[in-house]
């Protein structure tokens, strides 16, 4: 069990709900993942349409904590309005705050992000800001009242894993009391394990599960990987060494060519 | 007067309130949330929110969502 | 369940028994790891000493398959004699064949390795050769009758993980029907997961578990990591992409700046 | 005659058999295995294996083992 | 020849002047490097001291363009005052703008950086901002009037080379018309060559030259490396391939085992 | 100047002659590269054909040392016959010994390689064996009489650079007196610089120059890169550090927030 | 009155001008630049810049410089 | 008799010598080198090297060459 915001939960894997082949596969995959937190989004309602309700029912049945995002927002104003709409619709004060600065890399606009975080925290939200590995920005988010910071591993949907483990590790070391979650770019279970070994509190996965040949199987894989990485972090991994070292003791090796022992 | 609803221009009666707009659109207020001119409008205020010429209204519903979406 | 030699087993994690803080911790760690195969070695018996028996009893109680190694051997002749002594002592025809060519890097002497494998296979052994990622050598080992090939990840005990994933992947692709196990150098659970994602059939871990601050916790970590990597392999991971890709659909994004839709 | 046992030179009676050597060393044959001059000698042959001057005898027992050991 | 701000210069290597064993070695190294731009700084003058003048004379004799920096500044205000003092002292409107946000990583505070850049550009400076690889920040710096942007390779003085080649390459692709210079973290000549191969316009080196065993020799090394990387970029390097490809044509190979040709 | 076998030469770049767009471009590129050694091969002569002579004339005009290879050979016997034919044809006892063990990876068959090297050294050849980064094999080649050993960087023509810098560095450290040349897989000038920084005596490049958009420009790039890497090796590069370190001295920084100094 | 010069507190006559401060410090104005209270003061203004109680004066000179310096 | 020359089967007179083979092929001996049955034959021996049924002859000339060539 660990604390994410004001909730005590038993899984360190957060999942997205997009891009799955079907709603059923999504539901099965989230269940298989053991995840207790699922991200959701908003879109314009077409007149007379009802698919939003069906989706929302499905999510409610899963019994997970819902983490709405401000996907697609490009300004503080858009993000704040979207957060408020999400709070009303989903009945949660959690908000995954995204303020995108570039359409190609989908990179966060960190200046606008900090400003939006400040507004939303003041308005009672638990803000989960999606940011880069920039330590100064992370510190500003914390100063703005964020208890959780979510740096990217690599650009959203790229599946490139952890582009910059050195700075991610620095972030962890410098912000020991902040809940840190790697939020984008993870492609393989080993990437998620690596993030957890660095001491991150969780990882958020969407594309890597939803776009696998077998999303449910991949959900299981990430569940195990996050557990593996966390256990590894807690058990204190050995450091890499420059040279080879035998793991069988050398004393008493048979056929030792040598002088009288 | 003309307003924009979810990106589409519509002609509506002058001084229309938000709850009336939803009625015109045959849209129940459950399951959606609304912003006018980039400001969130809570459900409780629909009745008293009067729209003006050129207002921009967003009516949104839940959807599956992962990380972000570029536009 | 999978087949390792003539045995059907349910774990893809093989463990070493050396370097643990105590025999009890070793036994607990192996149990926690879920491993069904443990490596053992031979050493010169000091007159009157009995510790070998105590160790051997402990291993038998664990109920695992025993995989004796020819640790420390530097010639075909030494390796063959050691394999035969091990067969008599441990009552198994399995042998982890090591013929070391260099004291500093503990690197296999692949020429002698192939020759020793040939002799031992002819003599009825199930040979698990410890080798490099050299494809030609691996092919020769297969030609010599090995059903299992164990390339290193990096030098023994170095904890550097997979030095050369490109060649390890090549080996997997070119020898699809051989049982391939990464045998040395793995330092972190994520390394093990990575090896499994490449399609390897198993990994053998010793130092990384035995030298962790908490060996039992680390054994659990590796158990989960091996499972994660295997599940990930089977579920078909997405490929890394050059560019960012949104995982929330863009159609219908609120506040879309734009023309009439 | 002199032989080497596990790296140590020892003086033993000429024509000693392997089972006698173990007895001299107070070493039960269970739990150990033996090689003479880099050739494995199975337990069943101890009685008939006669040692010669300068023979090298290895008597080994189980130990925890991981990957390899350099010497 | 290329254009750096309003100057036409013939070397793409910019050098720092700090940390050298002696002023003479500094002068010899800069000369050996072929660099036409040297960074300088300001410090508090102790009463009666004159070493600043000696240093300044030495630099003037080298005949290089002087690029003063705002080293140590942590706020917009400090940076602007320092830039103005530097302009008066060194008689140049060039300023390497550093606004540091963290004492341990010496990481730029990108929000303050953009603000200071705006002020200084308006005041007639040619601003060389030291920044991260953040594309949005780089774009803001360009919007603020910077013609030159200097992302780090890795933290100052760390010698870790290019931490994040993927984002550095993205920056280059997205800002094709901006002068881009890698400004920190380069440790080895091959790192500098790599930066230039990515299409960067120049690199700025200090520690890697000054702290080498032989700074003058290392200056020569970096001169050649920058040239190599630039030539390589211009000549259009081949892309890495997944598989081996012979460079000797196979047709007509002697001893071809085969059918009649 | 350095010694390659019994020759004293002034360039550490060896070049291949294959895959160029035209013989003229090949000649120009070799000249631009400053290389003093060019590899050549043999092929079956079609009746009446004369192109071999034209090629041979062109090479002779370049005035470089010719290094014939045993390209395409897959057995000791083929390699030895090819070496002897090459000696007669090219009038040199130098031979680049290749014994390929796999058609896809073009990987050396190291066992056959050592055997062929032994035969050829005994027959008076100066053998340049193309091998992997395997230390034991390299030691055997030296034992067989090779003064020069040429490990691959990565598979031939793959342009993947140095796959395994750790083992290449180990090879250099363990064989300090052997002439070591990286022989395949180099894709970019920075790869060549890196190999030289590791202390290698030279690099052999073919595809990366011949397949560049501008082979002559790329030849110049590699010339500079090899020089840069060698100078960097000789000048003693700084080691990467875990943390940032300022290169401007901190004492006397203006605006130092602080106590009375 | 007390002012701070380069981080050190000093007592100086009330209403001191910047050029006088430099003279007191035996500091030629060539080769240095000055900021008062985090604002740059150009050389031409030294004569007319009158200091006040608690002012912070920075007097700086060239030094070798590379990338940044933490403080 | 039949021999193979550079991978192609050819019928040639019994007992043909290597120099005669080259003549038949209209191939000058300068600029080429020859192996018979995977053994190198130096130029000086062409005259005395008599070919037999099924012999394999390789006649090679210089070509541009880089690293290796697979076949």
What is this structure's SSE topology?
The complex is a heterooctamer, with 4 copies of chain A (261 residues) and 4 copies of chain B (71 residues).
Chain A: E1 2-4, E2 7-9, E3 13-15, H1 23-33, E4 37-44, H2 51-62, E5 65-68, H3 76-90, E6 94-97, H4 110-122, E7 126-131, H5 135-143, E8 148-151, H6 165-174, E9 179-182, H7 189-197, E10 202-205, H8 207-210, H9 215-235
Parallel strand pairs in A: 3-4, 3-10, 4-5, 6-7, 7-8, 8-9, 9-10
Antiparallel strand pairs in A: 1-2
Helix pairs in contact in A: 1-2, 1-9, 3-4, 7-9
Chain B: E1 2-5, E2 8-11, H1 18-24, E3 33-36, E4 39-41, E5 56-64
Parallel strand pairs in B: 1-5
Antiparallel strand pairs in B: 1-2, 3-4, 3-5
Taking all Cα atoms into account, the compactness measure Rg of chain A is: 21 Å
The number of helical segments of chain B is 1
Overall 3D shape of chain A: globular
Task: Please identify the structural class of chain B as seen in this structure.
Answer: mainly beta
Quick recap:
The complex is a heterooctamer, with four copies of chain A (261 residues) and four copies of chain B (71 residues). By secondary structure, chain A is of the alpha/beta class.
Considering the chains and any ligands shown, give keywords for the structure.
heterooctamer; A: 261 residues; alpha/beta; eight-stranded parallel sheet; two-stranded antiparallel ribbon; 9 helices; 40% helix; globular; B: 71 residues; mainly beta; five-stranded mixed sheet
Descriptive notes:
The complex is a heterooctamer, with 4 copies of chain A (261 residues) and 4 copies of chain B (71 residues). Chain A has helices spanning 23-33, 51-62, 76-90, 110-122, 135-143, 165-174, 189-197, 207-210, 215-235, and strands at residues 2-4, 7-9, 13-15, 37-44, 65-68, 94-97, 126-131, 148-151, 179-182, 202-205. By secondary structure, chain A is an alpha/beta fold. Chain A has an 8-stranded parallel beta sheet with strand order 5-4-3-10-9-8-7-6. In chain A, strands 1-2 form a two-stranded antiparallel ribbon. The N and C termini of chain A lie far apart (55 Å). In chain B, 10% of the residues lie in helices and 34% in strands. In chain B, a hairpin with a 2-residue loop joins strand 1 and strand 2. Chain B is mainly beta. Chain B starts with a strand and ends in a 7-residue tail after the last strand. Chain B is globular and about 35 Å long. The chains are: A alpha/beta (261), B mainly beta (71). Chains E and H meet through loops of E and strand 5 of H.
């Amino acid at each position: 069990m660990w604390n994410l915001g004001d909730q005590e939960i038993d899984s360190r894997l957060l999942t997205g709900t997009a891009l799955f082949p079907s709603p059923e596969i999504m539901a099965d995959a989230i269940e298989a993942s053991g995840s207790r937190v699922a991200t959701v989004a908003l879109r314009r309602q077409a007149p007379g349409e009802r698919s939003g309700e069906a989706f929302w029912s499905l999510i409610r049945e899963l019994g997970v904590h819902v983490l709405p995002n401000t996907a697609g927002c490009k300004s503080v104003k858009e993000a704040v309005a979207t957060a408020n709409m999400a709070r009303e619709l989903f009945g949660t004060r959690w908000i995954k705050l995204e303020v995108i600065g570039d359409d190609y890399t989908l990179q966060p606009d960190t200046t606008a992000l900090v400003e939006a975080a400040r507004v939303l925290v003041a308005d009672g939200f638990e803000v989960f800001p999606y940011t880069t590995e920039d330590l100064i920005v992370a510190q500003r988010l914390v100063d703005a009242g964020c208890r959780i910071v979510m740096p990217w591993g690599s650009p959203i949907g790229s599946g490139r894993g952890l582009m910059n483990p050195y700075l991610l590790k620095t972030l962890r070391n410098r912000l020991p009391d902040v809940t840190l979650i790697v939020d984008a770019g993870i492609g393989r279970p080993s990437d998620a394990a690596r993030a957890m070994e660095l001491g991150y509190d969780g990882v958020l996965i969407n594309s890597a599960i939803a776009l696998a040949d077998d999303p449910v199987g991949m959900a299981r894989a990430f569940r195990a990987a996050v557990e593996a990485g966390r256990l590894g972090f807690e058990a204190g991994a050995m450091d890499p060494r420059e040279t080879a070292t035998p793991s069988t003791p050398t004393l008493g090796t048979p056929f030792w060519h040598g002088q009288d022992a | 007067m003309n307003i924009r609803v979810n990106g589409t221009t519509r002609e509506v009666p002058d001084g229309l309130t938000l709850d009336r707009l939803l009625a015109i659109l045959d849209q129940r207020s459950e399951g959606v949330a609304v912003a006018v001119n980039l400001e969130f409008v809570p459900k409780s205020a629909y009745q008293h929110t009067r729209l003006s010429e050129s207002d921009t209204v967003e009516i949104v519903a839940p959807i599956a969502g992962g990380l972000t979406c570029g536009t």
